UniProtKB/TrEMBL annotation:
Main location (coarse class): membrane
Membrane-spanning ranges: 96-116, 377-397
Enzyme class: hydrolase
UniProt keyword annotations, A-Z: Hydrolase, Membrane, Metal-binding, Metalloprotease, Protease, Transmembrane, Transmembrane helix, Zinc
Names of required cofactors: Zn(2+)
GO biological process terms, semicolon-separated: proteolysis
GO molecular function: metal ion binding; metalloendopeptidase activity
Keyword Protease: yes
Protein name as annotated: Zinc metalloprotease
SMART domains, alphabetized: PDZ
Domain (PDZ): residue spans on this chain: 226-257
Length: 455
């Protein structure tokens, strides 16, 4: 129910803001607006103060909306109202009215990101666990417990890193721009400052997926190698392990963090059979050796070892918030970055350099909406801002049926001095409808594939 309500709220806010952008600028340009509709199909609610005023409606299918304006191309217009018809407005005014919807979405995203920055987010501190073996991070010299203090694309202009999500965002930007990521790191106590360079420029043309993230190899949040809940009668309990035990070493290998300990457990099989490990453990100030025999478990297509105990202490959490001006500026910056990255992804999908799996539909949006609501108001505002940016950018694409397609018509009119012919409009609209249907089908099929675990 939470997921459904969050999805409906997300669509409602974004549709209303988008259409209000068209509506408000149309009114400012003197265009008579006949109907402001949220949704399509059968009308389930309507309001109109008088027959000459705008009719506001809520329809049964809430997957979009529209603003219907007085227009001589759609029917006869009384002589006294011709000056209020959309088609009789100047090219500049028509362009402003069409562009106002996507711009409203982008302005909303700035405000939402700013609100999230002002409220603050509780996020893992940018202290990293063990890097993936043979990854860019390991080759750059990253170690378990490294605290990333700042990042830079050129090693000159540095940006503070206040949390792990901020570090991942800087990594995403570096990949999208084909740049290396320079990092300033210290130990967990802020000592031993040093600069490292992740060679992400070499991965510029690759798709950002799980495989690419493994190549980069930045660890998750640092977690102490301490045991949590131990399952009764499981391998850990049989070995004498208890919640709160700190693991110092396994088979003589010093354990630096929980990620390393989990990897040791997973790789504890010998030709598919569990291998007994010698654990050096600290408990209540005393050190002891325990023999641990994992069990075999299936992880996808491979077999791994498990001890049936929770491994790792909770990572350190910090509250990330910003003042009024800085929060707003970061909202502008994030909106710009998400917009440019979205355009790059669309472009790469068009020429076949990025997978069409990047397209998401209503099922995925609903799922993420529900997840973000459960995490808190700030997370939901950030999610809503991201979807608002995507909607704004999508509508600016030069495809018939979208606002960007109409803007292309006006660009042609501005260059040639004459509007696009009715014949071309008819066939472009048909092509646009086919393209939109294809995109929606792909997005929905991707949603179903993700739901079934195929992506």
């Amino acid at each position: 129910m939470i997921t459904l309500l969050a999805f409906v709220l997300t669509l409602g806010v974004l549709i209303v803001v988008h259409e209000y952008g068209h509506y408000r600028v149309a009114r400012a340009c003197g265009v008579k607006v006949l109907r402001f509709s949220v949704g399509f199909g059968q009308v389930i609610w309507r309001r109109q103060r008088s027959p000459s005023d705008t009719e506001f409606t809520l329809c049964a299918l809430p997957l979009g909306g529209y603003v219907r304006m007085l227009d001589e191309r759609e029917g006869p217009v009384p002589e006294g109202l011709r000056s209020q018809a959309f088609n009789n407005k100047s090219l500049r005014q028509r362009t402003a009215i069409v562009a106002a919807g996507p711009i409203a979405n982008l302005l909303l995203a700035i405000l939402l990101y700013a609100c999230a920055n002002w409220i603050g987010l509780d996020e893992p501190k940018a202290v990293l666990g063990s890097p993936v073996a043979e990854s860019l991070a390991q080759r750059a010299g990253m170690r378990a417990g490294d605290w990333v203090q700042a990042g830079s694309s050129d090693g000159l202009a540095w940006e503070e890193v206040r949390s792990l999500p901020e570090l991942r965002w800087q990594l995403t930007r570096a990949l999208s721009k084909g740049e290396n990521l320079h990092l300033t790191v210290t130990d967990r106590d802020g000592r031993g400052r040093r600069n490292l360079v992740l060679g992400t420029a070499s991965l510029a043309d690759q798709e950002l997926d799980a495989e690419l993230l493994r190549k980069i190899g930045l660890g998750g949040p640092y977690s102490e190698p301490v045991l949590g809940e131990v399952k009764a009668a499981g391998p850990a309990a049989k070995a004498g392990l208890r919640a709160g035990d700190r693991v110092l070493s396994v088979d003589g290998v010093t354990i630096s963090d929980a990620a390393m300990l989990r990897e040791q457990i997973r790789q504890s099989l010998d030709k598919g059979q569990p291998r007994e490990m010698l654990w050096h453990v600290e408990r209540a100030g005393q050190v002891m050796d325990l023999n641990v025999l994992p069990v075999v478990a299936q992880d996808g297509t491979r077999q791994i070892g498990r001890i049936e105990a929770f491994v790792g202490a909770a990572p350190e959490i910090v509250t990330v918030d910003y003042g009024p001006v800085q929060g707003l500026l970061r909202g502008v910056e994030r909106t710009w970055d998400v917009s440019t990255m979205s355009l790059k992804i669309f472009g790469r999908m068009l020429i076949g350099e990025a997978s069409l799996r990047n397209l998401s539909g209503p099922i995925t949006i609903a799922d993420y909406a529900g997840q973000s609501v459960r995490l808190g108001v700030s997370y939901y505002l950030g999610f809503l801002a991201m979807v608002s940016v995507s909607l704004g950018v999508l509508n600016l694409l030069p495809l018939p049926m979208l606002d960007g397609g109409h803007l292309m018509y006006y660009l042609f009119e501005g260059v040639t001095g004459r509007p696009v012919s009715e014949w071309w409009l008819k066939w472009l609209q048909r092509a646009g409808a086919f393209a939109m249907l294809l995109m929606m089908s792909l997005a929905l099929s991707n949603d179903v594939a993700r739901l079934m675990g195929l992506h």
